[in-house]
Design brief:
Strand content: 15-25%
CATH topology of the largest domain: Nucleotidyltransferase, domain 5
Number of helices: 33
Shape: globular
Radius of gyration: 38 Å
Helix content: 40-55%
Number of strands: 24
Number of domains: 5
Length: 920
């Protein structure tokens, strides 16, 4: 696909805009973007006509430029030129050709671009450099300069395009990579959105994703840092806020801005404050808002709102042209001078810059005058809001904050960018309606500013609280009084109905294994204490008998070689403690003349073997089951036993053990897939800042962890393509395509319904559905609790399920929450009560969630520092550890045994136990 000028221009602003333009999509509309496009085309047409008028008729051409005979061409100016070179295509506004200065010297070409604004940006210069690059490749000539005609005065500026060529090529490479990718780029909102035709649809997608870029005050670097921690949404970010006591040494410094507190305010839809926000307003408040044209440095409208004894007075000081700017500034000073002790209040840097420039442009004010004091002590509300007041709005802009407080503009889509187009339209038409629209917009900004200031004043200690309706009937929360909120912490959860709480109690992992599975004839085995080891001496020397014959040629050994010694550092694990155990292994080696080889040393000692298997098993037990970081375990072993273990050596232990137990993991996975029941779940993993996923497949006795680069269901679908048992899972759509009977986790469903009920406390239709579901599920759980997971006793509840769907799911509901709830029940009807028709099929996904918690503990220890290979090693060992737990076996005992088959180890342990009981 060709990289054209519109694509290159869009890529300088936003990768998403570039991608959408490459698909020839049209935006939903943006008044400013439409006006800017019209202005640019009109300015280009005017500039082209001006250039054509200054050139002779036979020295200018319009359209394409032929590459043949260009040395002898007579034209001096080409306009509306389309230049093409390989995969590049540029719409060049004009090309100026200077004739050769002498024989044998080629003429010089310079592209010309028209920019209607009065100030040039780097993007404008890069566009010109793109034109020069494409022209250069098309003509096979070096073009190192170009020109830009810009502004109301049609000024001409020469740009050295060769200095920008490298940056242009890099940008072209980025565009090529973007267009060749099968998936769209990550949607990220930025400052250009206000001027983009795709603004509405991009923002809607970002809101649906709850993307972090909705927080306009968050920089790209900060967003990437949060993404590296696994935080991708505003809701996720909101749970990370932790109130901390401010040190006394920072009491006089500005408060730090917390993105997580902003996210929390949005999630809870409440104003959150830090400290005591109190702008210093000691006098008569005067609310100021200014409109101007930034590219001209021209201010044409000053809005002043002040409360007097007669009521609210709004001043709108208008300038028809730049020559009248001084007059409205003088009028503004006169307004201030007529007010007793005025205090200027504004919002943002625009008014701060305005006050500073006006004083520089038209003379400093006399010190001690009323206007001088008012300007010197002007109060900017934005810094107060930025650090101390967190409104439930994605932005700290005046529009976003005032809109949440209930203020509405007469023109809903009005913005600062839109006023620029209105002003230009007025200058062309002098339409009084457009002027009135600008004046109204400015006065409404002053009203919005007054509302925001009044709200902030109400947050101050002893301040007057905002009137009802002004703050959206929302509470105000002090961040200092918040308790740390962990959304996934262990503990008692609040339920909307007592029936839901009773059902939740029956889903705890230990409760099920001790009561429910016993009645289902599937009682899991309990752990047995390890047998005490015999007391052995601290040091031991093992002398191996010499080999009499060469292992290769079987020739009698006649020539002795060196005596080899290998020292193995290990630990002895006793019933009540550990001790260092060092063993020296002595070998007599021989030399075979025929084979020319040394022999006599055991194979396992031919490598750099230094540490014994008991030590490796104990370290893996600490890291995998006890979730002790590798560095901590290494330091502990070295301190207690005097070893010189390094962190890299412990990593080699893990790698060695993972390779040893890889076959064990595969056996476990095969048995799970061939079984009659599978629990499945997935969770995130952090691979050095890269997002990945870990899938869990488990039954009642075994667990298998599988690493995947994404959450796409292809991997698990491929694993379970021949599975014919019952799959128990959550409501993730990837499981739906697996062709087997499925049971959705009713605990997930119940908790979602509970949250919906708490969020909609007055929705009687929703309560009727949730209450009916609780009444249906409670007797089923009681039957499971009494008889176990047996189909013979559970089938009787199928009639209750049919009645539930006929009575509560069939009617038409009107509330949005009830309709969504009904649709969810209808969609999953054949997957909610599958367990009633099978033996030993749980009604929740507790087994998989328990396995996920085990990985979550280990994930916290890894801290995102593990590589892809490292995390797969962790998962292999965690598979063995959790399978041992599910079977009631000691993980450390299994590691020390040297066995690979957990079933064989368990059978041998049971035989020893029965023999011991018989002898006892």
């Amino acid at each position: 696909m060709k990289i054209t000028t519109p694509l290159f221009e869009a890529s300088l602003k936003c990768t998403t805009k570039c991608f959408l333009r490459s698909l020839s999509e049209t935006g939903t509309g943006n008044a400013y973007a439409d006006w800017a496009r019209t202005q640019a085309q009109s300015y280009c047409d005017t500039g082209t006509k001006g250039l054509m008028a200054g050139a002779a008729a036979d020295e200018s051409i319009i359209g394409s430029l032929g590459t043949e005979n260009w040395k002898t061409a007579k034209w001096r100016l080409a306009v509306d030129l389309v230049a093409r070179a390989e995969n590049l295509e540029s719409s060049v506004h004009a090309v100026e050709r200077a004739p050769s200065e002498g024989r044998g010297q080629a003429g010089q070409f310079a592209p010309i671009r028209f920019i209607f604004t009065n100030k040039l940006t780097r993007s404008d210069k890069l566009l010109l450099a793109f034109d020069a690059l494409v022209l250069s490749e098309m003509l096979g000539r070096k073009i190192d300069r170009g020109k830009i005609m810009y502004g109301d005065d049609h000024a001409m500026q020469t740009v050295k395009t060769s200095a920008l060529a490298r940056e242009v090529r890099k940008q072209i490479e980025k565009i090529a990579t973007l267009l060749s990718s099968p998936s769209p780029p990550d949607l990220i909102l930025n400052r250009h959105c206000a001027e983009c035709e795709f603004q509405a649809q991009c923002r809607q997608k970002a809101i649906e994703k709850d993307d972090l870029s909705l927080l306009s005050s968050m920089t790209e670097k900060e967003r990437k840092k949060f993404n590296g921690k696994g935080i991708f949404t505003v809701t996720q970010l909101s749970y990370t806020f932790r109130p901390r006591r401010r040190p006394k040494r920072l009491a006089g410094k500005r408060e730090k801005y917390h993105h997580s507190l902003k996210a929390l305010a949005i999630r809870e839809r409440k104003i959150h404050i830090v400290g005591s926000p109190e702008p210093e307003i000691k006098g008569t408040p005067v609310f100021l808002d200014v409109e101007g044209l930034p590219d001209r440095d021209f201010y044409y409208l000053i809005g002043v709102r002040v409360k007097t004894a007669q009521g609210i007075v709004q001043h709108s000081l208008w300038a028809d042209s730049a020559s009248e700017e001084k007059q409205i500034w003088t009028d503004f000073l006169g307004v201030l001078s007529a007010i007793e002790n005025p205090v200027l209040i504004h919002y943002g840097r625009f008014e701060t810059t305005f006050l500073k420039r006006m004083c520089q442009r038209y003379g400093e004010l006399p010190e001690g005058s009323v206007a001088f004091k008012a300007i010197a002590t002007a109060v900017n509300i934005l810094p107060v809001i930025y650090a101390q007041v967190y409104f439930p709005a994605y932005s700290n802009g005046l529009k976003a904050v005032a809109d949440w407080l209930g203020f509405r503009w007469s023109v809903p889509d009005a913005s600062g960018a839109q006023t620029i187009s209105w002003r230009h339209e007025w200058e062309q038409s002098r339409d009084t309606q457009i002027k009135q629209r600008l004046v109204t917009y400015n006065s409404e900004d002053c009203q919005a500013l007054e509302l925001v200031e009044h709200t902030i004043h109400g947050l101050c200690p002893g301040g007057k609280q905002p009137e009802s309706g002004q703050a959206g009937n929302s509470d105000v929360v002090s961040a200092d009084s918040l308790n740390p909120d962990y959304p996934y912490r262990l503990g008692k959860k609040t339920f909307a109905m007592p029936e839901l709480e009773e059902i939740n109690k029956a889903a705890y992992w230990n409760y099920q294994r001790e009561r429910v599975y016993v009645r289902s004839d599937k009682r899991p085995r309990r752990k047995r204490a390890s047998r005490p080891a015999m007391s052995i001496r601290v040091n031991k020397v093992i002398v191996y008998p010499p080999l009499s014959n060469c292992p290769h040629c079987n020739r009698l050994a006649t020539r002795k070689s060196a005596i080899r010694e290998k020292i193995l550092y290990d630990i002895q694990i006793g019933h009540c403690g550990l001790k260092r155990w060092v063993v020296k292994h002595v070998f007599q080696t021989y030399w075979c003349r025929k084979c020319e080889l040394h022999f006599g040393l055991e194979k396992r000692f031919r490598t750099k073997l230094k540490f014994g298997w008991n030590l490796i098993a104990y370290i893996l037990f600490q890291v995998i089951e006890l979730c002790i970081p590798q560095r901590v375990a290494t330091l502990s072993i070295n301190r207690l036993f005097g070893f010189d273990l390094s962190y890299q050596t412990v990593m080699q232990f893990k790698t060695r053990a993972a390779e040893f137990y890889e076959k064990t993991k595969q056996q476990i996975l095969d048995r799970i897939i061939r079984g009659r029941l599978v629990h499945a779940d997935e969770t995130r993993a952090n691979i050095k800042g890269k997002l990945a996923y870990v899938w869990v497949l488990t039954n009642l006795h075994e667990v298998a962890y599988i690493y995947a680069e994404s959450r796409e269901g292809g991997m698990v679908q491929n694993l379970l393509r021949e599975f014919k048992g019952v799959l128990v899972s959550d409501f993730y759509a990837a499981y739906d395509s697996i062709e087997c009977p499925q049971q959705k986790c009713l605990i997930h469903l119940m908790r979602d319904l509970n949250d919906e009920t708490l969020n909609n406390p007055f929705d009687e239709e929703l309560k009727r559905i949730v209450g009916g579901f609780a009444e249906l599920l409670r007797p089923i759980v009681q039957t499971v609790d009494r008889y176990g997971l047996k189909r013979h006793f559970l089938r009787k509840h199928l009639a209750s399920v049919d009645r539930f769907y006929k009575r509560l799911i069939a009617p038409d509901y009107h509330s949005e929450a009830a309709i969504k709830c009904k649709q969810r029940f209808d969609k999953n009807r054949d997957k909610l009560f599958t367990f009633l028709c099978y033996d030993v099929v749980p009604w929740n996904n507790n087994n998989a969630e328990h396995a996920i918690k085990a990985f979550a503990r280990l994930r916290k220890v890894m801290g995102g520092t593990s590589t892809e290979k490292g995390i797969e090693e962790y998962l292999t060992l965690l598979t063995v550890s959790e399978t041992c737990e599910y079977q009631g076996l000691d993980f450390l005992d299994f590691l020390r045994s040297g066995e690979r088959d957990i079933e064989s180890f368990a059978n041998a342990k049971r035989r020893r136990s029965r023999c011991k009981d018989h002898l006892g």
